[in-house]
């Protein structure tokens, strides 16, 4: 039975939900690289990472658990990337619109690179992975003079020249790490972003190419992890998969 | 002068068709299940398959007699009563998407398709029996088998008639559809590839069924699940489970059927498992 009390409880719950949604994203998604540390601390664990000989400047992990490995999942939730500032960067100066532009573009690059192999879905469940990603080592440059500002200009330039990425795929229900990669390839060498609409402007092409490049490397790494093992090849060759229709030559 | 006009006319026709022009084709009314299992020419057993599976709940589709392309339709009611028959349909046909927006449907007889018409191809069993190249066939099979993203939830099949290959099946990943097409297209000796592989929707309801079916089958038939693959394929589409692949014994096929029938949310199980005793590689 609905009473005044239950109505008040509903109202309070709705207000809490609205307030949590409207909390500034920057506080949650901008973090700083810990001084002297090799890794940012973003991944749930770094214990299993090993140098990947196929990909330069990369350490990675792919679960070989027969029950829980990449092959056992068919879809992925892509979480919004998180930005980690370089150790000596001043977090207060990072333009919020710039951070949003970087994370949105990186997320777009990830989606583009993987979605035909790991369809992107919105809700967790069995067979679904959660992809968590972080852009590591973002630096903030000098203020942009007022007379040089255009539509979409940020207050300060963002430097991604020494950026790398940390990405992990976890089980969407349990949070268990299934695969992870730390890619320190500096694809953004010399790349700056000084507009919230950088992805549409030719002069920031180096930045978009860098993010697209990390997306492609992620896909290539997933492709290599999905390759059939020698045992799998032998097994497949021994079967009649994929079986041809009944009209095929006997 | 006339020659210079020809490309322009071709361009105009192509443009008109791609803009949703109404066109007419001759087709066979099949079930989604039988059409994607690629049962070849229209024989009595194929007609029986089409009619019985549509009756059991598989969606009716059209198979273009001209090129074997499977077309899903917007108005299934218009073709459902014509299961297993030949029809002439008109409507907006989108080859790239494999869809047809139907305007009219009329039943026709095989005799009304003239000899020499490309649409007779699917009606003639001889087309499928005399024109095989075994070496090419094995090459196609091998290339498809080596695709990395194939899971137990994907089923890819093919048929080959000389230099023409028809791919069919279901997949949960778009990359399998495009990769299959690309690897087969690049095989020397293959000239035409018709791609009837359907990309399955990934609704959470079907995902729950997939996961539960895999658990149920692995519990009792674990020997068919190995490394990163399986001999049993579990295709789930809109709450229906289609079991495909090969098992060693009839008892295993029955057990798989029983297990999948107990999966919560699954309202129909089609058991298309083959029993190995009569199987040979590539057959």
Explain how this protein is built.
The complex is a heterodimer of chains A (250) and B (283). Chain A has 250 residues and is an alpha/beta fold. In chain A, 29% of the residues lie in helices and 24% in strands. Chain A is built from 5 helices and 10 strands, in the order ααβββββαβββββαα. Chain A has helices at 4-21, 25-29, 96-114, 205-226, 230-238, and strands at residues 30-32, 50-51, 58-62, 75-78, 82-85, 128-143, 153-159, 164-171, 177-183, 192-195. In chain A, helix 3 packs parallel to helix 4 (205-226). Chain A is elongated and about 70 Å long. Mean pLDDT of chain A is 83; it is low at 10-27 and 246-250. Chain B is of the alpha/beta class and 283 residues long. In chain B, 34% of the residues lie in helices and 30% in strands. Chain B has 9 helices and 14 strands. Chain B has helices spanning 2-18, 32-36, 44-55, 76-79, 125-129, 134-145, 174-185, 204-220, 250-261, and strands at residues 22-31, 60-64, 70-73, 86-94, 99-108, 155-161, 164-171, 192-199, 225-226, 229-230, 232-237, 240-247, 268-271, 274-275. Chain B has a 5-stranded mixed barrel with strand order 1-2-3-5-4. Chain B is globular. Mean pLDDT of chain B is 86; it is low at 1-18 and 279-283. At the A-B interface, helix 5 of A face helix 6, strand 6, helix 7 and helix 8 of B.
């Amino acid at each position: 039975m609905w009473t005044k009390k239950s109505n008040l409880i509903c109202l309070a719950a709705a207000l809490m939900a609205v307030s949590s949604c409207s909390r500034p994203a920057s506080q949650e998604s901008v973090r700083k690289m810990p001084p002297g540390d090799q890794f940012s601390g973003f991944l749930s664990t770094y214990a299993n990472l090993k140098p990947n000989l196929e990909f330069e400047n990369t350490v990675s992990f792919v679960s070989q658990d027969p029950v829980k490995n990449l092959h056992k999942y068919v879809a992925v939730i892509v979480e919004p990337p998180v930005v980690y500032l370089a150790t000596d960067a001043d977090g207060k100066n990072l333009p919020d619109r710039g951070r949003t532009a970087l994370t949105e573009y990186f997320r777009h690059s990830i989606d583009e690179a993987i979605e035909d192999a790991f369809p992107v879905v919105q809700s967790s469940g069995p067979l679904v992975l959660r992809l968590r990603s972080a852009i590591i080592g973002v630096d903030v440059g000098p203020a942009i003079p007022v007379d040089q500002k255009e539509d979409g200009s940020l207050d300060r330039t963002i430097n991604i020249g020494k950026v790398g990425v940390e990405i992990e795929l976890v089980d969407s229900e349990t949070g268990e790490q299934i695969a992870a990669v730390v890619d320190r390839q500096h694809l953004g060498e010399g790349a700056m972003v000084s507009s919230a609409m950088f992805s549409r402007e030719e002069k920031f092409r180096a930045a978009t190419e860098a993010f697209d490049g990390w997306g492609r490397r992620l896909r290539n790494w997933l492709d290599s992890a999905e390759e059939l093992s020698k045992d799998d090849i032998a097994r497949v060759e021994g079967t009649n998969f994929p079986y041809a229709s009944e009209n095929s030559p006997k | 002068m006339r020659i210079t006009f020809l490309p322009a006319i071709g361009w105009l026709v192509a443009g008109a068709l791609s803009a949703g022009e109404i066109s007419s084709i001759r087709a066979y009314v099949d079930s989604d299940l039988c059409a994607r299992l690629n049962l070849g020419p229209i024989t009595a057993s194929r007609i029986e398959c089409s009619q019985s599976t549509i009756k059991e709940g598989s969606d009716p589709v059209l198979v273009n007699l001209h090129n074997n392309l499977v077309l899903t339709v917007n108005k299934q009611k218009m073709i459902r009563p014509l299961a297993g028959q030949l029809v002439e349909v008109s409507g907006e046909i989108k080859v790239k998407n494999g869809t047809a927006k139907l305007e009219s449907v009329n039943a026709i007889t095989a005799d009304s398709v003239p000899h020499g018409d490309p649409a007779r191809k699917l009606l003639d069993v001889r087309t499928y029996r005399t024109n095989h190249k075994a070496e090419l066939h094995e090459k196609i099979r091998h290339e498809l088998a080596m695709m990395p993203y194939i899971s137990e939830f994907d089923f890819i099949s093919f048929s080959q008639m000389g230099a023409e290959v028809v791919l069919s099946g279901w997949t949960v990943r778009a990359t399998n559809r495009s990769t299959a097409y690309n690897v087969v297209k690049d095989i020397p000796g293959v000239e035409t590839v018709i791609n009837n592989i359907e990309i399955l929707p990934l609704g959470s309801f079907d995902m729950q069924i997939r996961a539960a079916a895999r658990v149920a089958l692995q519990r009792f038939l674990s020997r068919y699940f190995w490394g990163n693959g399986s001999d049993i394929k579990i295709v789930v589409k809109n709450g229906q489970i289609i079991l495909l692949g090969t098992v060693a014994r009839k008892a295993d096929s029955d057990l798989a059927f029983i297990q999948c029938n107990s999966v919560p949310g699954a309202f129909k199980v089609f058991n298309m498992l083959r029993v190995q005793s009569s199987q040979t590689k590539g057959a």
